[in-house]
Amino acid sequence: MSPLRDPDNCSTMAEVRTAVDALDAELVALIARRFAYMRAAARIKPERGHVRDEARKAEVIGNAVAAARAARIPADAVGAMWETLVEASIAYELAEWERRRA
Q1: What's the CATH architecture for 10-101?
Q2: 96 is an annotated ligand-binding site residue
Q3: pLDDT in tens for each of the 102 residues of the chain?
Q4: Which among 35, 74, 42, 80 is positioned nearest to 61, based on CA atoms?
Q5: DSSP string, 61-89
Q6: What pLDDT shows up at residue 45?
Q7: Closest alpha carbon to 35 in 89, 84, 87
Q8: How far apart are CA 16 and CA 54, in angstroms?
Q9: What is the structure's pLDDT at 3?
Q10: Cα of 93 vs its chain's centroid, Å
Q11: 93 has binding-site annotation
Q12: Which residues bind substrate (predicted)?
């Protein structure tokens, strides 16, 4: 596989699509790793009520929004994506917490 071109050096849509597809695969791998940490959290947290932590949720989303602003990408869109990601993570962690204790 040839190395991906820098976005500013792409000259065809095929190059752009190849890079986007590769980045999407990397993002899925990173999300899978993030969910592995949710499994660890489910193992570590002693009580079911500890799974949802609204202060931590706000901190995580706020960090992502700040990083998006710093990267000069749409912070509102990143905030919405992180809201979905964090809620999915909480649901996954809760299911894992219950599975481990069934």
Answers
A1: Up-down Bundle (1.20)
A2: no
A3: 567 899 999 999 999 999 999 999 999 999 999 999 999 999 999 999 999 999 999 999 999 999 999 999 999 999 999 999 999 999 999 999 999 999
A4: 80
A5: HHHHHHHHHHHTS-HHHHHHHHHHHHHHH
A6: 97
A7: 89
A8: 38
A9: 77
A10: 14
A11: yes
A12: 17, 34, 45, 93
Lookup result for tokens 């929004």: 65
Question: 48 labelled as ligand-binding?
Answer: no
15 is in an annotated binding site: no
| DSSP one-letter string for 2-67 | PPPPPGGG--SHHHHHHHHHHHHHHHHHHHHHHHHHHHHHHHH-SSGGGS--HHHHHHHHHHHHHH
Selection from 81, 99, 96, 102 nearest residue 42 by Cα: 96
pLDDT at position 2 is: 61
